[in-house]
């Protein structure tokens, strides 16, 4: 697919091998984009977000602590910015007022000048506690972000205010044995039109918090399955969420009553990325089974698209445009060998090696055929 057609991709996926992949579901095509040279696992993509100007730019957070700027209009990377400080991979990226917001696993939130050419010290640095699993920006108030992680309770921060959180969740009460309940918030979402937030945990719980509530504990809690929940997304209308777990199971949970609304045919490995279309009943999912899936929510057909993408998939971005089918017809171009086609994969390498081994000759000899014929004759028959 030509680079000029990158703007028409429906889903963008970040991989464990450091490749940004664009998928056009209408054409059933996938293209790879790398910043330079061959893909490397040291540059694994751990976070994606849209840049300024709608869906014309993607910010790609990599394991080597660089944020790369990809233009969907030109189909190429336009620069990168190194963001040192703290330890671990990016757990969230965001933009606000021309600045870049990053959060790493060790719990350091930094606000940077969004100048990809120059190198500056961060404008702001906050410590939100270690073991962060997710930082999420409030779409209605871009200067507000929420964080949560393992033994790191949900907190809401105002990046234009003080260095203390504006909301700090309180752990639930002790269990029936009077033992402390562990904390492990894996993903966070802001509920539009309210101050409420919803989280999913590594202990298969979905919780709704209301910062206006004085108790600071969940106002609603639901459980699903037996395995850690790893990703979550709001459905159109924001009355329910879809969660995925480490065993590839997908389920829709109602946020008003806390009940299970239904399950979707899930993945074969841990779910790493989920996102619903803002207006269409579509869900994009990816994970360790290397397959991008697009489901139609609450539809008997369920699975709409399934694309194998060779690499383990860490995160995704789903295009929010409504006119998915209104793609201009472009002339067919001659197929070219793209550098990304050289991506290697251990599984395919092992299969190719096995195919090269010389198989034994399975063609039966003439003597063997004659022996079989003799055995099939009835007793007392004479030879021809």
From TrEMBL:
Subcellular location per the Swiss-Prot or TrEMBL entry: Nucleus, Nucleolus
UniProt keyword Lipid biosynthesis, yes or no: no
Alphabetized UniProt keyword annotations: Methylation, Nucleus, Phosphoprotein, Repeat, WD repeat
One Gene Ontology CC term in the entry: nucleolus
UniProt cross-references to SUPFAM superfamilies, sorted A to Z: Quinoprotein alcohol dehydrogenase-like (SSF50998)
Region (Disordered), start-end ranges: 324-384
Protein name as catalogued: WD repeat-containing protein 74
Top-level taxon of the source organism: Eukaryota
Compositional bias of kind Basic residues: 371-384
Native source species: Leptonychotes weddellii
CDD domains linked to this entry: WDR74
